Amino acid sequence: MTDDFRSMASKAKQAHDARVSQRETEKESEKALRKEKIEKAVDALRSEVLPILNEAVQAFSDEGVPCEIDYQFEIEEGLGGWPNVTFQCFGPEDTSKSRAFTPQSIKLHIECNGQNHVVKTSSHPILQLSNKEVGVVAVGKAKSLLRRAIHSTMESYFSHLDMIRGVPSS
What we know:
Strand order of the largest sheet: 1-2-3-4-5
Number of helices: 2
Structural class: alpha+beta
């Protein structure tokens, strides 16, 4: 009888060990696939998105509108999220009123999962939550969407500047 229990326990333990081993293999495979997707996403942001944003920064700066590009390419394991880039126009400080204000645009947020770019903007220049989706576009096809989103970002900068200066909106 004891041998039956040993055999039963041995078979159950072997089955358990096999399931654990299979799950660890699956986790490693998922981890490697996610790493590959993150690498593709970073490559897409660097090759497609950053050149367009850098072009906008240069042109806007030439017109006296400072801009900033920030990026998050390092994605910590287990935290989720995807590599992303943000773009915003801000400054210079406006001292035309009794109190100084710094005009700023809405924040443009571009996230990439290796296959698609998700383009969002904040809904307000001060409240910087990226909650308004502008569009989703396949990697390699983002130029038109990005140009429209950058235009909206610039328009929001001047709207905020008008508000600071008390200029009526049209």
